[in-house]
Specification:
Blueprint (H helix, E strand, L loop, with lengths): L31 H6 L17 H25 L5 H6 L3 H26 L8 H17 L5 H14 L3 H32 L8 H20 L7 H6 L7 H9 L1 H18 L6 H20 L6 H12 L12 H12 L4 H17 L2 H25 L15
């Protein structure tokens, strides 16, 4: 029934949002009969994400990244009056830049903590090792797929299906994770934007740079919270229109599941917050440590930016990741540099600090991300092999390779 939670690892009250008969329970925690009965609701080969990180895709995107990096580190600095970018980068204090690298690792650890808190409930297979592998694999997918983070979501859904989650629960918990993660994003924009405009925080800033983003963020918060009021049977209601001819039936078939997943995900996020799950602070660590990397990079080159300005410019810059560019290269840098310049930071200082930040935040997690992706493929294949044996199928070596994203 809706709201039922597996109790093998968590004795706290069940969450209202999680859906399906045994949400999130791995076959390892069920009897073979129960595992077989749930196969219909688990992702199948045809349900798997169409994303595939192939050699050709990796080579193509790598070439695009190289071109983008050359443009960023050679062309943009010239436009800003910095003739030798690499020489300017070498002038940074190495100790502060090393601290930035440590802070970036802590940011990744924060996200892994959030992942474990949201996705690991009642799922024995989602342990701490897997809770690190999946985010790292998602990082690799985001780097190689220019789709505003869709590659990371696809890899996450594929791995969670292998862990034993049903499709409705995967959708629910992905939404819950995004709600928790981006509530910090939106909340920071509101607080810092209003604080800068009213003079509560130092840094100044125009109405367009402070209040407009704050109002937009507040509207998004209100919209997200309103999803919690969505009827639980909205999927069944929309399903009644699926058999109708024409555009109405076509739209109903494709949109029937989305409102239910959004509503259940928001309710799950709210319940997690009400239960005061300490792991939700991983979202604060994820954003906070990454923003701290940006601040450290400014300090490494002899400039300090007030915390509120740093936060607002950081979040305005990250909107550049929505552009169809590999890893957001170019969009994020341009957005951040433009925001800092608008707040009165000298263009040359903004360029060199942001490029140093991106050198750390983009490249440092990339190699571990590729390693995490390869490790996750092995992990998921082991899970699938164990499931086939439990179901009385052929040994793993006699089966075709499982589809991977």
């Amino acid at each position: 029934m809706p709201g039922t939670e597996a109790r093998s690892h968590d004795s706290r009250p069940p969450l209202r949002g999680d859906r399906s008969g045994e949400p999130g329970v791995s076959p390892d925690a069920r009897s073979p009969a129960a595992a077989d009965s749930s196969d219909a609701s688990r992702p199948t080969e045809s349900d798997q994400p169409k994303l595939r990180i192939t050699r050709g895709r990796a080579l193509l995107v790598s070439a695009l990244i190289v071109v983008a990096v050359v443009g960023l580190y050679l062309l943009i600095p010239k436009l800003a009056g910095l003739k030798q970018t690499w020489g300017q980068l070498r002038r940074g204090d190495p100790l502060w830049l090393a601290l930035g690298a440590v802070l970036e690792l802590l940011s990744i650890a924060g996200y892994a903590t959030l992942f474990r808190t949201v996705f690991g409930r009642g799922v024995p297979r989602i342990d701490w090792r897997v809770s690190l592998e999946i985010p790292l694999a998602g990082i690799a997918a985001i780097r190689l797929v220019a789709a505003a983070g869709a590659g990371g979501v696809a890899v996450t859904a594929w791995a969670l299906g292998g862990a034993g989650m049903t499709a409705p629960v995967i959708a629910c918990r992905i939404v819950a994770s995004l709600v928790v993660q981006y509530s910090v994003y939106l909340g920071a924009l509101i607080v810092c934007g209003v604080g800068l405009w009213t003079g509560l925080f130092d840094g100044g800033g125009s109405f367009a740079l402070t209040i407009v983003p704050a109002v937009f963020a507040a509207a998004l918060v209100a919209t997200i919270l309103s999803l919690a009021l969505m009827p639980r049977d909205v999927e069944q209601r929309l399903g009644r229109f699926a058999d109708r001819p024409g555009a109405v039936g076509w739209m109903a078939k494709r949109l029937a599941k989305a409102p239910g997943a959004l509503g259940s995900g928001v309710r799950t996020a709210i319940d997690l917050a009400r239960q005061r799950r300490i792991g939700l602070l991983g979202a604060v660590a994820y954003w906070g440590f990454d923003i701290a990397v940006l601040g450290v990079c400014f300090h490494a080159f002899g400039t300090d930016v007030t915390p509120a300005v740093l936060v607002v410019c950081y979040f305005l810059g990250t909107l550049g990741s929505l552009l169809p560019l590999p890893g957001g290269i170019g969009g994020v840098e341009g957005g951040m540099i433009g925001a800092f310049v608008a707040f009165g930071v000298p263009a040359g200082t903004a360029v060199i600090a942001v490029l140093a930040y991106r050198a750390i935040s983009f490249w440092l997690p990339t190699l571990p991300g590729i390693v995490g992706y390869l490790a996750l493929r092995s992990t998921v294949n082991k899970w699938r092999a164990a499931d086939r044996k439990r179901a009385g199928g052929q040994p793993a070596r006699a089966q075709p390779a499982d589809p991977v994203p």
